[in-house]
TrEMBL record:
Residues 60-274 form the Fatty acid desaturase domain. This is Fatty acid desaturase domain-containing protein. One of its GO terms (cellular component) is endoplasmic reticulum membrane. It is a multi-pass membrane protein. Belongs to the fatty acid desaturase type 1 family. It is found in: Membrane. Its cofactor is Fe(2+). Keywords: Fatty acid biosynthesis, Fatty acid metabolism, Iron, Lipid biosynthesis, Lipid metabolism, Membrane, Oxidoreductase, Transmembrane, Transmembrane helix.
Amino acid sequence: MEQKEGDAVAMLELYYWLVKWRVQLLGRQWNFMDVGTLVVVLGLHFLALLAPFHFNGTAVWLAMALYVITGLGVTLSYHRNLSHKSFKLPKWLEYSFAYCGVLSLQGSPLEWVSTHRNHHQFTDTWNDAHSPIKGFWFSHIGWLFDYGSRFGSIEGRLNNVGDLKKQPYYIFLHYTYPFHSIALGVLLYTVGGLPFLVWGLGVRTILYLHVTFAINSICHKWGKQVWDTGDLSKNNWLFGLLAHGEGWHNNHHAFEYSARQGFEWWQVDLTWYVIRFLQAVGLATDVKLPTEIQKKRKALSNKISKEKLGTVKTNGNSKEY
């Protein structure tokens, strides 16, 4: 027990050093975490650029399969299951999906969920971790290289994921997060050489990173609003397809607890189809969905209709309806 406590303290002290370490770069202070993230993201982009020179049909199919699997790790596990508790899964299955999310290289479950809960708490304000009011570049990817934009301070780090920090598995994934993708890269190279590494790790990871980031940037700028959410969230059909249903972003901000985000039959939502299947076989329980009454209350068309009615003058006096 004492040995484990000593190891935990050592890891914490190391992390504090990584965050407190500073260097002046591109006009602002960067810490070790910022620089490390920049190196990894640039490295993955350079790896992806090798794709035309290592084209291989099997590698492409592998990349597509990993795109779906690791993508569901983000959308089904990180987002709808862990961040919003839209449904429940048996622990073995919950942990399996979370591990797929780790292989997406979008952060540990603790860090991803913490950032996303922050986003919903402060949507489109200066306190939003990837607020669009700070510019398109920042909301898309710039926030990733600015630790302070996500947590503000060491003390503010992961202060909204107490439910997950109680589970040793998520603590383990948090402190070992990068090593799992490194192991996957070694496995891919061992099995299929550079084509598998370039497509299965480089192309697949970069493509899904930008698709996910587009939910923060593009889906808060371009698309259609159908719900009265009081923010800039939009539904975007393209990213509804590419992001396994996450592009129906205005739907999500209207009913963030909902396990389903594509409400209409034509709003493709792959993540919901998987959840619905798991529910049908008895693995997904307590699946949350908005009622028709809740939808009617939240519909933007209702608000617009009321605004059109506006103020009716009666006997020279204004009367609100």
